Amino acid sequence: MQPTSCFWSGHRQDQREDITSRAKVGKGTFYLYFRIRRGNAGAAGRVSYQLLNDACLAVEQHPELPDFTAQVVFVIDHIIEALRQDVLVLRFLERNFVWPGLDQIEASREAEPLMRKLLAIVLSSPEMAGRSEREVYQRITALGSMCMSVCYSSILEGKPDNIDAMKPVLYDIIRRALSPEK
Predict the structure, then answer these.
(1) Could you tell me the pTM of the whole model?
(2) Dist. CA 122–CA 38, nearest whole Å
(3) How far apart are CA 14 and CA 17, in angstroms?
(4) Could you tell me how far CA 82 lies from the centroid of its own chain?
(5) Are 137 and 106 in contact (CB under 8 A)?
(6) Residues 41-54, mean pLDDT to the nearest whole number
(7) Cα–Cα distance between 37 and 96 in angstroms, integer?
(8) Is residue 89 within 8 Å of 32, Cβ to Cβ?
(9) DSSP state at residue 125
(10) Residues 6+ apart with CB under 8 A from 150
(11) Would you give the distance in Å from CA 153 to the centre of its chain?
């Protein structure tokens, strides 16, 4: 079986042998792992989309939230609670929440309607005033990645602490990251 993945085929034969030797796995195992991971990217995107969509629908049911930052914290909390309730989904996503279509917005200005709507909300918020679309994209991606990593470690491993103890830390970081620049 000849590997065809971009990662694998981009390496010379001696590099492939070095990679698999250091990983202590056969070439076929290594190839199969990357092929499965690439195949799951679409599924991870669909799962992430559903989590995000559900959280956005939930935030719309809470008009009392005072500002954009409170809405973001609510959305993140909603996603964390959904993942706490379904650890199989959390294990599937690992630490990689896929912001469905966000990269398409940044790269090509084409995106799925939910992401276009969210980007419009984010860009029009006072907290993001003066920031470029690129900076907003970077900030949201970094915050999402951080939250997923902490969520995974805290819920599944209890590290550095349980998720209830980590939520205030996460939300404080989010609030600071979203505070208007002075």
Answers:
(1) 0.70
(2) 30
(3) 5
(4) 14
(5) yes
(6) 78
(7) 12
(8) no
(9) S
(10) 163, 166, 169, 170
(11) 14
**What is the end-to-end Cα distance of the chain in Å, rounded?**
58
- Which of 58, 104, 102 is closest to 79 using CA atoms? 58
How many Cα atoms are found within 13 Å in the side-chain-facing hemisphere of 144?
19
By the 8 A CB rule, do 89 and 80 touch? no
5 CB-contact burial (10 Å; exposed 0-12 / middle 13-18 / buried 19+): middle
Cα–Cα distance measured from residue 182 to residue 179, given in angstroms and rounded to the nearest whole number: 9
pLDDT single digits (tens) 107-120: 445 556 777 777 77
Q: At 145, list the tokens.
A: 């990645």
Q: Which pLDDT belongs to residue 39?
A: 53
Which among 81-95, 114-128, 146-160 has the top mean pLDDT? Answer: 146-160
> Residue 61: pLDDT above 70?
yes
- pLDDT for 8-20, tens place per residue? 444 456 665 665 6
* Tally: H helices and E strands in the chain: 9, 0
Helices (H), 24-132: 27-60, 68-85, 87-93, 102-108, 113-124
Cβ–Cβ < 8 Å for 36, 67? no
